[in-house]
Amino acid sequence: MRVLIIGSGGREHALGWKIAQSAQLSQLYFAPGNPGCAHLGKCVDLPDLTSTLSFCQEQKIDLVVVGPEKPLVQGWCDHLRAAGIACFGPSKLAAQLEGSKAFAKKVMAETKIPTAKYQRFDAFDQACAYVKNHEFPLVVKADGLASGKGVTICQNEGEAVMALKEAMVDNRFGESGKVVVIEEFLVGREASFHVICDGKRGLALVAAQDHKALHDGNHGPNTGGMGTFAPSPFVTPEMEQVILEQIADPVFQYMAQQGSPFQGVLFIGLMLTWHGPKVLEFNVRFGDPETQVMMPLIESDLLPILYQSAQGQFEPDLDLKIADQRACVCVVCTAEGYPENPRSGDVIEPLPQNVEDGIVFHAGTQTNGEGKLVTAGGRVLGATAWRSDLDRARNAAYRLVEKVHFRGKYFRKDIGGHELNS
Ligand SMILES: Nc1ncnc2c1ncn2[C@@H]1O[C@H](COP(=O)(O)OP(=O)(O)O)[C@@H](O)[C@H]1O
Ligand SMILES: [Mg+2]
Question: Is residue 351 domain-shared with residue 295, that is, in the same domain?
Fold first, then answer.
């Protein structure tokens, strides 16, 4: 099979690493990929949908795997499928589950999926009137894509009005903030749960946990993710069943009834509350850096699963097997200045190769004019290791981190640890 992966981050390197292990793979391309991906396949520059479509036709691509949310929300999969190219990722309409928080909330309300209570507003003064008589904290969310910056947890009316003004009046998030969702504040532990669907049936991946805050102990500003671990010890097999039956299946049924069956992966952002798991948000693609810890824990060949999802039909006996007795930890190494103003161009010393039960995934890296590997983004590399249990995996991941050298390297010391003690 000839496969094209779209995207350039750690997620795409991890997906490519897993797909490259498939006996069914004949050629792997990345657009644009990164220097880590370049070890697995060819990196090509396809800046838009038109160039992607012609590349797929010329190169007889059998499957396109779309990594990031933006092309999904823009409807690339519909265009690729219309041109007869199998594409792993939801239609434009189904991608609204991520592209519009108000849409996702409406679907959850209609299908009675457990989530925070909410109201949708498209007028600033009405939103302000609503928060006036409300209890705090509450959560203000820009409706559309906002690169992880559209959510504010507000402790009082002043903060809420400020957040509403930024989104609805100052247009900080452009069109994405014209509509907002105001929701109840949920208390609990967060987990990420991914389900791959062929439009009808869901196949669950291993539950993962992300660490979003910059510093140890969950202090400091929010980031794209400083590290992950899986499996989450807080998502029990019984809870997985509840998530599949009360959350994933109703979403898949709803989308099928709308004539937009969900083909791709649904990433369910969960708050594990005293009243059971509740949905914080949906994403319609693999999480980053969750993918880096999920891929090494999949025992099945992933390629036929993605292909059959893209074709809209899993074989009846298709299963997604997760390794038992194995845990994985990914520690993200970030660039100086991340998240506000990450510095690029720092030379990365040669990385450990052929690590046993581990790999350093590339995220924000680049090869410079002299052929040297340099930093090229906030999250630079993800030191990832898997072992028979979480403690061993964490120790192994941190041993790998010590072998990563570049000026300004920063990482959290408590990935896979703090969450467990708190
Ligand atoms: N209702 C809520 N109660 C408590 N915390 C929330 C709530 N909604 C969001 N959050 C917090 O804000 C973060 C970002 O919100 P999310 O809905 O995942 O949006 P996005 O990832 O698009 O920024 C969550 O990971 C969670 O920490
Ligand atoms: Mg989120």
Answer: no
